């Protein structure tokens, strides 16, 4: 007889029906309850995690929309710098940096974002065009090549450089797209959010390997 999450079954080789008319003893019932408990606990934990994610997303969305439509340009740039600093801090964790080095890395990335002589552009863009070209080349050429070759990133410096290449243009794009119209930025981000949410649920249902193990 096999048990899985408190459900008992009998193999076909035994020739006996899956259910029996005999009532289980108190000891057997207690044993079944102890086996069902981890299953119920796991289900509750997953439901709680999903609820926490939804509530967190709701709060962050309210803060983001308020900043998007209410802040002046300089305030929006400062808001994007804060977001960039948090993202760079998390990227430092991905590179297994110590807390102090992660802080320095986040400050460096934010400094690249706000550095006037690097980000000035005569056509009125917040970031010069070459920053977006570099980011596009990274995603279109280097990322597919890396997925195909599956290299081991032994160089921490290479991983940190990739982080700056990803994060700084993304933060600059938040400023430039909002400069066109806040609704345009919201439409772009909405597309990304929907895709990311769908990927999360599909990954939970069908995925096997984590992209970034925690």
List the helices and strands and how they pair.
Blueprint: E1 2-4, E2 7-9, H1 26-70, H2 73-94, H3 99-114, H4 116-119, H5 129-149, H6 156-180, H7 182-206
Antiparallel strand pairs: 1-2
Helix pairs in contact: 2-3, 2-6, 3-6, 5-6, 6-7
Structure description:
- The chain has 214 residues and is an all-alpha fold.
- The chain folds into 2 domains: 24-70; 72-194, no CATH class.
- It is 74% helix and 3% strand.
- A two-stranded antiparallel sheet has the order 1-2.
- Helix 2 packs antiparallel against helix 3 (99-114), helix 2 (73-94) packs antiparallel against helix 6 and helix 3 (99-114) runs parallel beside helix 6 (156-180).
- It is globular, with a radius of gyration of 25 Å.
- The model is unreliable at 1-15 and 17-21 (pLDDT under 50).
Largest sheet: 2 strands, antiparallel
Side by side, the strands of the main sheet go 1-2
Give the oligomeric state: single chain
DSSP strand tally: 2
Uncertain runs with pLDDT below 50, 5 residues or more? 1-15, 17-21
Keywords summarizing the entry:
214 residues; mainly alpha; 2 domains; two-stranded antiparallel ribbon; 7 helices; 3% strand; globular; disordered N terminus
Structure summarized in a few sentences:
With 214 residues, the chain is mainly alpha-helical. It contains seven helices and two strands, in the order ββααααααα.
């Amino acid at each position: 007889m096999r048990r899985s999450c408190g459900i008992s079954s009998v193999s076909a080789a035994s020739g006996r029906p899956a259910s029996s008319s005999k009532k289980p003893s108190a000891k057997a019932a207690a044993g079944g309850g102890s086996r069902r408990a981890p299953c119920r606990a796991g289900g509750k934990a997953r439901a709680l995690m999903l609820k926490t994610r939804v509530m967190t997303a709701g709060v962050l969305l309210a803060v983001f929309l308020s900043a998007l439509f209410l802040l002046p340009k300089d305030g929006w740039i400062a808001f994007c710098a804060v977001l960039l600093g948090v993202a760079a801090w998390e990227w430092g964790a991905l590179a297994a940096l110590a807390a102090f080095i992660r802080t320095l890395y986040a400050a460096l990335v934010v400094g690249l974002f706000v550095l006037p002589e690097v980000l000035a552009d005569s056509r009125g863009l917040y970031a010069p065009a070459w920053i977006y070209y570099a980011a596009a080349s990274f995603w279109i050429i280097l990322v597919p090549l890396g997925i195909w070759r599956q290299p081991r990133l032994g160089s921490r410096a290479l991983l940190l450089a990739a982080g700056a290449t990803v994060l700084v243009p993304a933060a600059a794009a938040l400023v430039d797209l909002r400069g066109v119209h806040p609704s345009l930025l919201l439409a772009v981000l909405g597309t990304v959010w929907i895709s990311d949410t769908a990927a999360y649920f599909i990954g939970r249902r069908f995925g096997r390997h984590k992209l970034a193990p925690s």
